[in-house]
Every structure is written in structure tokens, then in C-alpha cells.
Amino acid sequence: MTPPGGGTAGRAAADREAVLAVNTALYESLERGDADALTDVWLSGADADDTGGVVCVHPGWPMLRGRATVLRSYMLIMANTDYIQFFLTDVEVELSGDVALVTCTENILSSGEAEEEGELAPLVGGKVVASNLFRRTADGWRLWSHHGSPVLTSVDEDEDD
After folding, report:
1. For residue range 13-41, what is the model confidence (pLDDT) as tens digits?
2. pTM of the full structure
3. Fewest 10 Å CB contacts: which of 57, 81, 105, 147?
4. Closest CA to 141 of 8, 14, 6, 5
């Protein structure tokens, strides 16, 4: 007899929670501008070298390959963003052995451009659908690939009439 919370179902639930924690850590590190925490989220070692491994597509950017290139892109984003906050919705987790896929909608609130120097920048909103692929490592689950695609605003249905 398998004890409660044990066995395959218990492991899957624990893996799901661990993957969600790392996914949350990704977005929280960006909100705080915490480069060390962001670096810890990503896959490292030989599987993440600059010839492949880690992959990232930011909305509107070309594909980035290799840990150093991907981390550099996030450092640029954090250095050029005064404020950013993510509200994740539609979060789904799929597990398959040592790989996990998290899909979600990133509802983003960030600072825009100030009209004049010294003024507070307005807040702007945006929406991105994201796929975050994780791998189980000796150090726990780590982000292997991030792909974000902007969601274009839909046309009001009344305009179609």
C-alpha cells in the first residue's frame, strides 16, 4: 500500500509545485531587478552553453541561444525598465519525465516613456502569452527555454456590425 501523498501521484504533485515555484521566481526576479535570482532560475552547465542549450524569444526579438546571450538580454531589459509587474493568468503545467512546460498569459504593467525629463513616466499595460520549458537537474527544476509572444488587442465586436 502506498502512503498518502506518495507514489507517482505524490511525486507529480510535488514536481508541479516545484516547477510553479521556479516559474514564479522568474517573474519575481524581473520585478525586483534581481540579476542573481534571475541567473539562478536558468539552466546552467554544459547543457546551457553558447552553442545552444538555453533558448529565449522575447516579444519582437530574434531567437537568442546560449545562457550568456539570454542572460545578457534580461540584464538589458532590467537596466532599461524602471518598473515592471507581472500578473500571470491561465497558468497550466504539463509534466513529462524530467521536462515540464508552463504556459501562461503575462499581463504586464510597466513604466512608459515620460513626456518631459523629470516627470513620472505613465504606466502602460500589455499582454504576452508565454511558454516556459523547464528541465529537472541535480539542483532542481531550471528554465531551459522561454518564448513570449505579444497578444494583439482584439477589435471590438461592435465595430464588425
Report:
1. 999 999 999 999 999 999 999 999 999 99
2. 0.85
3. 81
4. 14
